[in-house]
Structures are given as structure tokens and as C-alpha cells.
Amino acid sequence: MNIRENIRPGGRSARVQASVHKAVRDLLSTMDRGDVTIPLIAAEAGVTPSTIYRRWGDLQELLADVAVEHLRPDAPPKDTGSARTDLELWAEQYADEMASGPGRAMIRDVLSSTGTETRNAGKCCGYTREQLQAIAARADDRGEAFPDVETVIDHVVAPIMFRILFDETPAAAGQVRLLVEKVLPER
């Protein structure tokens, strides 16, 4: 059982989480990642290091939690009036954000977490699915064809992530449009 699963949402717990997350983001914006420590984060957040250790276990889990929270979309995908252009725009933005320096660091943090890697990666995948399901639902409302969300993940998202993780050259906008073309050809 994970410690975080027993934490009540709201109240002091939510304030502590918000304060610690903000402290992590603030410290990472002003110093090298390797110099960030739990005692520094605790001091910045106004909590004790034991509070952080009790809740997150270690620095990597905390960094992963902050990354997962940051990777949560804050708005639905833009509605351009067309499923194809909705997907192209979303996929291009996704590729740009994930391939950026901060995006890559967050991906590393999520994938490097130890006790909850499946849960953290699963949350990120869930966010992606939700965004794609929103595009698919709009396409359905407009009577447009749209591939199964898992097909989009396999043929658009997975190649983008593969290039980000294993290739020095992330997918460019033209490559992303080609991936979209394969799952949603122009008619």
C-alpha cells in the first residue's frame, strides 16, 4: 500500500502538498536539479523534512509527483472545428511540450520514480487518453470519423515519445502531421 493513497484530499494535506510542490518548482527554476534536496524543499515550503519523507518517501518520488501534477492538462484540446486539425494541433503541442528541456526532465522524473512508477506513468497516460477522448467525442458529435483512441496512442503518441526518449531529434511538426495522416487520412 502506498502512503499517498491514504492522504485525505483538502485541508492541511492539500495545503502541504501545494506548498511543497511550489517549493520544488521554485527551487528547480533557480538551481541545478542535482543541488535540490529535501531539506532545502522543506525549508522553502515551511514544513519539516520528516513531513516530506512521510508523504513522498524520497526526493525522486516527490519530483515524480510534481511532474505528474504539472503534466496534467489544464484545459481541453483546442476545438478547431475539425477532428483532423484538432488532433494535429494537439499532437504538435504535445510533441513540443514533451521534447522541451522541462518536458524531458518531467518525463525522466516520472519514469525514475521507484515505488509508484506504474501509478505515475499511468496517470500521465490517463491524461493523454482523456485529451484524445475529448477530440474523439467532438468528432463523433460532428459526425466525423475518428480512430480508436488506442490506435492514436499506438501510432501518434508512441512514436513521438520514442523519439523524445531515444532519439536526439524529436519529431518535428511535419513528422507529427504525417503520423496523424496515417491514422486520420484526408478524404
UniProtKB/TrEMBL annotation:
<dbReference type="GO" id="GO:0000976">
    <property type="term" value="F:transcription cis-regulatory region binding"/>
</dbReference>
<dbReference type="InterPro" id="IPR011075">
    <property type="entry name" value="TetR_C"/>
</dbReference>
<keyword id="KW-0238">DNA-binding</keyword>
<feature type="domain" description="HTH tetR-type">
    <location>
        <begin position="14"/>
        <end position="74"/>
    </location>
</feature>
<dbReference type="Pfam" id="PF16859">
    <property type="entry name" value="TetR_C_11"/>
</dbReference>
<keyword id="KW-0804">Transcription</keyword>
<dbReference type="InterPro" id="IPR036271">
    <property type="entry name" value="Tet_transcr_reg_TetR-rel_C_sf"/>
</dbReference>
<keyword id="KW-0805">Transcription regulation</keyword>
<dbReference type="GO" id="GO:0003700">
    <property type="term" value="F:DNA-binding transcription factor activity"/>
</dbReference>
<dbReference type="InterPro" id="IPR001647">
    <property type="entry name" value="HTH_TetR"/>
</dbReference>
<dbReference type="InterPro" id="IPR009057">
    <property type="entry name" value="Homeodomain-like_sf"/>
</dbReference>
<protein>
    <submittedName>
        <fullName>TetR family transcriptional regulator</fullName>
    </submittedName>
</protein>
<dbReference type="Pfam" id="PF00440">
    <property type="entry name" value="TetR_N"/>
</dbReference>
<feature type="DNA-binding region" description="H-T-H motif">
    <location>
        <begin position="37"/>
        <end position="56"/>
    </location>
</feature>
<dbReference type="InterPro" id="IPR050109">
    <property type="entry name" value="HTH-type_TetR-like_transc_reg"/>
</dbReference>
